## 1
Amino acid sequence: MSSSIFLKTIKGEKCNRPPVWFMRQAGRVLPSYLKLREQYSFQELMNNPQLAARVTLLPVNELGVDAAILFSDILVVPEALGMNLVFTDKGPVFSNPLKDKLENINSLKAETNRLSHIYETIGLIKNQLSDNKALIGFCGAPFTTFCYMVQGNSASHSFPEAVKLIYSDRKLAAKLLALITELSVEYALNQVKSGIDAFQLFDTHAGLLPYELYIDWVLPFAKTITSSVRQAGCPVIFFPKGLAGGMKHIGYDVADYVGIDWQDSLAGSRKIIDKNVGLQGNIDPRIFSVNNKQVLFAELEKFKDFGKANYNWIFNAGHGVSPDNLFENVKLTVDWVKSTEWNR
Ligand code: CP3
């Protein structure tokens, strides 16, 4: 059995504290990352296996988190489908968004060798990661990836053209979702083969759709990915941000764990979600921007009762940490989770 508290917990073992890691921990909040960014662009860091492995390990060493998350991006999948991507100060931008020429969906083709450097990165990370830490691989869920591919950028967080395509041409939308799903399954399974210990599927924009449409029509694509990864023996966390009332439909058939955003409480979510599914989350990451330790510790105290009664829980934030978060607050949070007496 692994000595990693993250892996023990995700596999159902009762541990004396929750494991802790953060979405977006590998960039943004770390002074050492920001320093590296003065020298290299984000894409240079991501595409060079040595550098990507180094960045992946920074938060393990500097924050003391229990798991590393692969330093990459969900948008490598559209790139491998032939789309041209640049990361600008305003976020990712595709030069040829599908909304401008929807028939281009029919000519997208997977070039799987464009992802092979990522498998090399995973190998390098695993060689350097100690046994008591886990490596999380990931990709974007088909719907979130679809939003970026159709809209071309995230200037409007409502991705209007992407949502419109689902209502106006269900068949073409399904074709694109199926293409993304097919490549994502291959990509995820190669991550498993390369040595990841767990996998997270990010559906950051799940909340854009009425949840019945999401559950009936979009979730099956995501489930194709989660099922393939679980069949390969790798535990899966699913993060459908903003799904709200739709969370009651996320059962053990979808994932081992589900990420809870900061809108609902963990206790509230626990009441509506299948008992066999563990929870991950959900401190509001904006609290990390407040320069007042009392505010932070008061918020952390609120997790004590939940953590005492629930051992199938991974401590995380309700969304990613961001550059305006204070490194010290994130570090204090990790230390607090690890040093608290959880009375389990
Ligand atoms: O800890 C980590 O950061 C792990 C690696 C990781 C990145 N992106 C690196 C990254 C992961 C897991 C992602 C996922 C991702 N990327 C998502 C889903 C999760 C989420 O946070 O909602 C989405 C929607 C994207 C697309 C994306 N990439 C956006 C919208 C942006 C710009 C805004 C932002 O979040 O910074 C990125 C850029 C990005 N991806 C950076 C990093 C470290 C910042 C690059 C920089 O240094 O400027």
## 2
Amino acid sequence: MADVHILGIESSCDETAAAVVRSGEKIVSNVVTSQIATHQPYGGVVPELASREHLKAIVPVVRQALADAGQSYQSVDAIAVTQGPGLAGSLLVGISYAKALAFALEKPLIAVNHLEGHIHAVLLEERQKGNRELNFPVLALVVSGGHTHLYLAEQRAESWTYENIGHTRDDAAGEAFDKVAKLLGLGYPGGPVIDKLAAHGNPEAVKFVISQIKHPDRNKIPTLSQKTRQGWGTPQERFDFSYSGIKTAVLRYVETHNMKAAIEERRKALSRIAKPKLEDYLAHIDNATLDLVASFQRAMVEDLVGKTLAAARAHDVATLFVTGGVAANNELRQTFEREAAMEGLPVYFPSRPLSTDNAAMIAAAAYPKFLAKDFAPMDFSAEAGMRLSG
Ligand code: KG4
Ligand code: ZN
């Protein structure tokens, strides 16, 4: 089969991204512009500002991705775009532009689920490294600012099917990192800052207990072979997460340990620095806060790894994927690697640039759809709450 170049466009949250990927296995270009500076003063993504920034960035970002790839609007074979989940206004910017391009250029248009994109980030990079020997079933943890979801993923011929076996009941893991960082005056986004600062604190200092969701049917977990016989879609056990409690526990700790004044000072001091570096954070933080940050991260990591491995055992999976923004976290990666190795389970992560939002993963997820001629109609719309299934 001749090479297929797909132009991917991603605008679901606060990154405007475009990429060209060849035949689902080679990143030819990958451009991501972040809106962090716009949202930083508000301590989180402001949807109206996000749409406006996407509008400004989309044309130059796509142009750059084509130029970096040595491609033109005419030379690409298809245009893929994120349909959802995400912020409706942000999604619409990417979708409208992708539709206009597909219409004007008479190219096929492919709608991609953002979560499927995160899973394909792993597949894309493994193929790029020449690793085509993945064993199924795969269990994928998609852990980001908006999601903490567990999917069983299967490939049948060219097409992929997904079954959700767990998700967060409240805050996503990345959201908890962001909220805790905001509450400690560490700015936005919180994950990367906490990741770096945690290495300087004592993770055993504060004991956090993460809420466990009661699963009355946990003891009746069918094995994968039983499931295959029963067919997918029968009621299954869940492996759900809950992270709003730990955020409240950190808040309570801050209040009972009189940390508020120091937090305010830190917030002010850091807001005067355009792009604070690790040294700047360390200059404005005390040991008690470093211990708190390290203990928070340890509790999050233990819960994410523990639940994912429990799900992997229950479903007898052969391979583990960990993807999404939080998959960039150092302690999470190390802990997954150590614990999965003890169970003889191979675990794959995307590289750090492909863990967070990007369009290469969208173009990669579109490739099997291109082969299956699974094209989107011109009147498809954004789906802010889009689910990923079968
Ligand atoms: O996948 P992503 O770029 O966007 C969404 O789809 O949500 O994920 C962004 C999330 C943010 O919550 C951010 O704080 C978190 O990923 N994140 C991290 C790290 N890098 C990004 N969390 C923990 N450690 C990191 N190194
Ligand atoms: Zn994402």
## 3
Amino acid sequence: MGDANGLRDYRGKRDFGRTGEPSGRGAAAGEGRPRFVVQIHDASTLHFDFRLQVGDVLKSWSVPKGPPADPSDKRLAVPTEDHPLEYEEFEGVIPAGEYGGGTVIVWDRGDYEPLSHDRWGRPVDFAESLAHGHARFRLHGTKLRGEYALTRFRGGPDGAADDGEAAWLLVRTAGGGPGHAAPDPRRARSARTGRTLARVAAEDGEE
Ligand code: MN
């Protein structure tokens, strides 16, 4: 998860002269609840990117099948490098040949309530609960609402974020009723602009 690195991994992978992604040198955490965003990314493999604000960065996981609707449906979530807070707004086309080349839409976003507690019922710092490999939270998005949890089942806190070792599960927690099912990514529409991947690719792609 690379706390000590901050955005070094993120910046190291990208040429900001070529990609339209934010460099992350502007925004600082604002007041109020932390933010979340779910993007759909049509890269070498089509996937969802699930990001939760923790302090000044978006902690990030690549979720191949997207968030689950049903508590029995556990979704693989592979940690990726921390992203800058401005990434919540990012929708567009990363040029072919660049890191993550392909089209991105903002499928859902909003804020969330950290719900992690210790065994005595006291709230636990959210970054600490992620470092320990288990965090619960309630999403308040335009599509995703209710309780979810992320649990690490392989790799440890000291492992590199994207070394192919660490793996988590994203679940809808029981008791909250069914959640919003992940859409067919090719038909899904942006929560920001209403556009599909194809439309963003046509409008924002290179000539
Ligand atoms: Mn991605």
## 4
Amino acid sequence: MRIDLHTHSTASDGTDSPQALMAEAVAAGLDVVALTDHDTTAGWETASAALPTGLTLVRGAELSGRWYGGEPTVGLHLLAYLFDPGYGPLVAELAEVRRSREHRAEGMVALLNADGIDVTVTEIREHAAGGTVGRPHLAQALIRRGLVATVDEAFTPEWLGSRYRLAKTDIDVFTALRLVNEAGGVSVLAHPRAARRGHIVPDTLIAELAAAGLWGIEADHMDHPVADRAHARDLARDLGLRVTGSSDYHGTNKTVRLGAFTTDPLVYEDMVSTATGTAPLAGP
Ligand code: AMP
Ligand code: ZN
Ligand code: FE
Ligand code: FE
């Protein structure tokens, strides 16, 4: 069984539509794929309707979280799986983050404009096509202008990595955890050791998250140095957390392939028997 629990579609900053992503998942030899777009469940319906034979879909989302308990605050991504997408308090938090992402994109466009770079908010909106707006959408605009060659280059400090980067309002991570659990889902801390992305989550904070109901940690991820994958595993064992591995596929917005990292079937079965919000969906 090949299981990839972290992918993005055009419902956020991936480049495959949810339908195309399901077909790609089969082509990549996956048996189970989770759709985890940033701060939205908008792709669930189209992905579900397009499920090929032999593929099981785990409906999820990647929440933009932040720990506000210290200085500096810590940004982190929380993968939420199999939760009830109609749970009002969670729906409201996700809508708020998406609004904040749109405001941020407007601000970043203004910063670029001030330096004579003529990207427009309309263009970014058109390319996001109703999906959650993210920096990769701005990266694509810079590529179309010939200002950078790749999305990776657009994420360097000279561009969207720092100079033209603005903060967004994220969900308090303890609130996010509570809401996902209340909605019958399970939470996995995404890429906690992704230093390159400014996403190193201190072990002490992970211990607090575990005590507050975190279910697992994503250990095997492209942005984790090999030693950090082992560190995440050891920490998970000490804290009684499960360990996942996944690609964080974004279509052509990232170089990683679907199924580049996978999750142990026993961990997946544990997830399915724990969650109560929504069931995995098997293709016809
Ligand atoms: P945002 O959520 O708008 O802050 O943008 C961050 C998103 O861009 C994350 O989902 C990352 O997967 C993606 N991202 C971050 N760094 C890179 C990079 N160097 N190349 C491609 N995508 C990236
Ligand atoms: Zn992304
Ligand atoms: Fe992430
Ligand atoms: Fe992701």
